[in-house]
């Protein structure tokens, strides 16, 4: 069956295997096809059972041309493959230009066609039927070309099969009588003579043998649609996924079957990975969504743990969060955990092994009760206390820092699947921000309530003492002015720190309710009101008679910024101007004293939530939160004036209506 090949074969179009291969009988009925054929046409594999006529896929104006081309292939006494270009319709009636190379299967009235969609690694130029004679099949005449060109080369059907990149076998009975080069490599042999004359089942492992014997019998009996996807393992090789097509042929006068095998392992793995990734995204998103419905840190953590329990085959789960003390962590929430366990392990030392691996190393830790890797003494104790077979510790990240760890246990399985591991670790990376939000909210609430309570006690006690003293002085007819001054001194002292209290309230309110009710606010009134508080300053202000989307807290944005300058010196000097662009207004604040305050503000723009409670940070943190809530931005504008670099603070807000 193997024959020689005249001329230069390196650039033969038949060396390409990415295209669609299919077989037609003499009536143009589709007998077999590979997956590329179905990918191009958009047809379903089930169409093989409906005796599809290939002419139904050819546009009306090319049907006669294709029939003429096809008939010449059937009647060609030399059986030399010929190439021509035709248009083919897919299931949506879209046209695809294909380059078809066709040859009759020896001793049959069936045509084997190998095709490539135009543009798939082909040389540029118009391609029609090729051969050693003038072509009339496509309705036009083309010259045969010079020596060595494809049009001068005559290929036999056997060469077309021999140089397929996919394994091709011919079986007569259960014996291999032909195998191409790709098939030799597929079976891991050095030459075809180690294969021909043997049964294909001799090269397969026992499990694959049973399935392939049943499959081949079904194909020969016409009970199996083509192509068939199957798992396949050659002896000593890896398990792969293949696509098998079969067609009956006459080989040297004897009835047999030709099988073509395509390795689709990479495609199947990609499809499986895509499905797993989609499921992983759905789980992670559902966990993140659950954090939105928590109004406090305990609620947020409980919602997260419930979602984890619902999404995996998990027996119990618990969360530890770092304390202010860098060496300990507290049990913040748990589900399906015994009460006595929570009491015994309520506080852990995260500097000790094995907690330090997760809290400080940021590495997940899986304790899987496997025969070759039994757990250590410490882990055995944890497993016994939790009544589990295996457990895992997953770090919870926020800004690349570990803020806590959640542990999950399994009671019916000794190990975690790769999918479970990857998804749990993804949750640990994504849920950290919500946990930190809850931590900050909890901390701000405690600080704010403590300050509010202390101030209330101080003012109430001050009133009680003042009233007692005044009553005593009046009883004696004395002057109470000095006592009144003392009382006012205390109130004034508290008043000087009201900026911290107000900003604490702003941040706390924001954390409790992120949904701001925005309305049109006159920015000119807000800026002029803020300037009024700093009588000793010299401020040049280019009035901005515009409305912006904000709320009643907008004044704190400008009061906080001006206060930053007043802390340096009361007689500071600023220039405030504005610009309008694309429905936004930018307020530009320049330091005429070049005091370096804007550099300080720039360094505070990136303050993290865990550092926001410091007195020096709270004002700019509140300012940044408010501007973001108004869908605005705050940043630094760098320019050059009189040959010197100058920085200005820029606050950009959404403008409402027209001036």
TrEMBL record:
Pfam families: GAF, PAS_9. Residues 8-75, 155-221 form the PAS domain. Residues 296-445 form the GAF domain. It comes from the Archaea. InterPro entries: GAF (IPR003018), GAF-like_dom_sf (IPR029016), PAS (IPR000014), PAS-like_dom_sf (IPR035965). This is Putative PAS/PAC sensor protein. It comes from Methanolacinia petrolearia (strain DSM 11571 / OCM 486 / SEBR 4847). The lineage of its organism: Archaea, Methanobacteriati, Methanobacteriota, Stenosarchaea group, Methanomicrobia.
């Amino acid at each position: 069956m193997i024959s020689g090949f005249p001329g230069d074969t390196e650039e033969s179009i038949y060396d390409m295997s990415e295209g669609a291969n299919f077989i037609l009988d003499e009536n143009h009925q589709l007998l077999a096809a590979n997956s590329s054929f179905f990918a191009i046409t958009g047809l379903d594999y089930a169409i093989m059972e409906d005796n599809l006529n290939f002419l139904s896929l050819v546009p009306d104006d090319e049907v006669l041309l294709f029939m003429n081309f096809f008939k010449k292939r059937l009647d060609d006494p030399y059986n030399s493959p010929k190439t021509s270009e035709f248009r083919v319709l897919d299931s949506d009636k879209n046209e695809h230009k294909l380059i078809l190379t066709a040859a009759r299967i020896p001793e049959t009235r069936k045509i084997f066609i190998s095709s490539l969609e135009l543009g798939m690694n082909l040389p540029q130029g118009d391609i029609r039927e090729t051969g050693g004679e003038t072509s009339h099949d496509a309705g036009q005449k083309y010259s045969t070309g010079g020596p060595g060109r494809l049009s001068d080369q005559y290929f036999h059907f056997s060469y077309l099969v021999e140089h397929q990149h996919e394994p091709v076998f011919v079986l007569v009975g259960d014996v291999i009588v032909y195998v191409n080069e790709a098939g030799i490599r597929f079976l891991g042999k050095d030459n075809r003579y180690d294969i021909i004359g043997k049964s294909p089942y001799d090269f397969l492992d026992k499990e694959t043998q049973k399935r392939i014997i049943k499959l081949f019998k079904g194909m020969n009996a016409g009970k199996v649609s083509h192509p068939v996807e199957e798992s396949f393992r050659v002896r000593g090789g890896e398990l792969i996924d293949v696509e098998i097509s079969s067609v009956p042929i006459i080989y040297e006068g004897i009835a047999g079957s030709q099988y073509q095998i395509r390795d689709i392992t990479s495609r199947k793995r990609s499809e499986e990975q895509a499905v797993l990734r989609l499921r992983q995204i759905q789980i992670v998103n559902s966990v993140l969504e659950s954090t939105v419905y928590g109004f406090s840190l305990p609620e947020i953590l409980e919602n997260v743990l419930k979602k984890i329990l619902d999404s995996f085959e998990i027996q119990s789960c618990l969360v530890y969060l770092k304390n202010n003390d860098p060496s300990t962590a507290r049990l913040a929430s748990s589900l399906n955990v015994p009460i006595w366990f929570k009491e015994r392990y309520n506080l852990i030392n995260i500097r000790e092994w094995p907690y330090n691996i997760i809290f400080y190393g940021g590495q997940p830790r899986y304790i899987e009760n496997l025969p070759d890797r039994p757990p250590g003494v410490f882990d055995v104790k944890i497993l016994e206390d939790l009544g589990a077979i295996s457990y895992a510790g997953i770090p919870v990240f926020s800004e690349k820092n570990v803020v806590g760890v959640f542990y999950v246990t399994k009671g019916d399985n000794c190990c975690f699947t790769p999918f479970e591991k990857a998804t749990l670790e993804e949750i640990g990376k994504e849920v950290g921000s919500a946990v930190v939000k809850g931590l900050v909210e909890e901390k701000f609430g405690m600080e704010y309530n403590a300050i509010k309570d202390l101030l209330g006690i101080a003012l109430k006690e001050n009133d009680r003492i003042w009233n007692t003293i005044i009553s005593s002085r009046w009883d004696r007819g004395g002057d109470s002015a000095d006592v009144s001054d003392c009382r006012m001194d205390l109130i004034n002292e508290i008043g000087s720190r009201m900026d911290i209290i107000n900003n604490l309230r702003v941040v706390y309110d924001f954390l409790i309710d992120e949904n701001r009710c925005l309305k049109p606010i006159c920015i000119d009134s807000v800026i002029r009101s803020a300037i009024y508080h700093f009588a000793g300053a010299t401020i040049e202000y280019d009035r901005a008679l515009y409305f912006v989307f904000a709320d009643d807290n907008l004044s704190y944005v400008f009061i906080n910024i001006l206060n930053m300058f007043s802390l340096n010196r009361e007689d500071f000097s600023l220039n405030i101007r504005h610009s309008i662009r694309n429905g936004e207004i930018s307020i530009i604040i320049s330091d005429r004293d070049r005091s370096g305050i804007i550099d300080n503000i720039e360094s505070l723009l990136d303050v993290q939530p865990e550092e926001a409670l410091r007195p020096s940070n709270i004002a700019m943190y509140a300012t940044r939160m408010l501007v973001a809530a108004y869908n605005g931005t705050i940043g630094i504008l760098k320019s050059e004036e009189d040959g010197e670099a100058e920085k200005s603070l820029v606050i950009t807000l959404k403008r409402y209506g027209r001036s």
